[in-house]
Amino acid sequence: RPLTIAQRGAYATDETQTRLHDATHYNNYYEFGTGKDDPAKRSGRFKPEPWSVDIAGHAEVTGRVTLEDLLKPHPLQERIYRMRCVEAWSMVIPWVGIPLGDVLKRFRPTAQAKYVAFTTVERPAEMPGLSYPVLRWPYREGLRIDEAMHPLTLLVVGLYGRTLPNQNGAPLRLVVPWKYGFKGIKSIVRIDFTESEPTTSWNLSAGDEYGFYANVNPDVSHPRWSQATERRIAGDGFNLLGNRVATLPFNGYAEHVASLYAGMDLRAHY
Amino acid sequence: MPRRLDRIALSKPFVFAACLLPLAWITWLAVQGGLGPDPVARLEHETGLWALRLLLATLAAAPLRRLTGWHGLIRYRRMLGLFAFFYASVHLAIYLVIDLGGFWSQILAEIAKRPFITVGFLAWLLMIPLAATSTRAMMRRLGRHWQQLHRLVYPLAVLAVLHFLWQVKYGETIAVREPVIYAAVLAVLLAARVPGWLRQAGVRGSGAQQQ
Fold this sequence. Notes:
A: 270 residues; alpha+beta; 7 helices; 12 strands; globular; B: 211 residues; electron transfer activity (chain B); FMN binding (chain B); Protein-methionine-sulfoxide reductase heme-binding subunit MsrQ (chain B); flavoprotein (chain B)
């Protein structure tokens, strides 16, 4: 379905965009399988409507909200972001969504809300990948509250001007452009304001490979590969040569977000 | 009396052509733009897989000969082994030239620091002396050392499978099992040789100076 976009151009990169077909047929969404083409092939049974989100934890307003009510007060924005996967490939995708912070403020988080935890839906009948113990299900992710409130952090409902396809995290997902893609949790059903750092699925499964912060950082290698460069998946597929580009600190968003981590050792908090 | 037809010699050109089919197919996909969203990763994956498959086929020749009693099987072995080396070399070349393209200063660090690349590179290095001594002339020249040298195929096959196992992302081995299957096939092929090795060791251990 096409979406009505009220605002374009904020934080938009003018780099060559990834083709829609590539962005929707090369996905990591393990609930549908670990292969890159599994999500597109095996998500047909998933029903993203109707949808609601549970708001819980340290906030004045909690309880179940329908997706319509969650989105209603906010005009949709388009943001063209680089997306850097921890596997050292990247895309440039025009997302449609609203700043997460604008939504979270409506629930009036209290002073104890130091972190925000997110949970993905868990529906074994619609998600064939859940039958494998690849990760600790349901998928869980989290942000520090200041990261969650940052204007770059986007609650996404669409891409390329249309609603999210199932394989990209329909109907509601997170996009945090300065972090590795696995922080962008998909098909969110629960948002929890917590006082302590939430556990995340990837950190539980392979803590030495996937940290809580997961900021894109060319200087901190993944234990099994370098993060200094990335393969850019963009434009038509014929350019076999010259796809490799240098990875930038915070995925090129350092001027906006580096201050969030002032004084922190980013090697220890990878 | 005319000599009996050497069917194996006659079939070799066809086996040769068959071994080139994967390369033709991959090239055709590349030209068509049919390699998917991440074409370089696909090229690496396919050429690596064929190198491994041919390597395992090479290792399967001797046990299969014993199993089937068809001695001609062994005469395809050199060609299969050389094609395994060929695909491994194409695999490495794609990684170095196309994938790392423009970032060659990274090469040494990549090979030295990434365990899965280190073992993969080592496996390829170990194939070089085997390919270089694969001719009949070299076989004659090296005599019994030839066989000793060519036992390198066992450790290098283990390294090749490790390269695959360590490269796949976390969780994939649980859901897809592809590298595990290759590891299992290698384990079977190595296990099939154990009785022979034990027998040899036994003969040597008894001190009998036969031959």
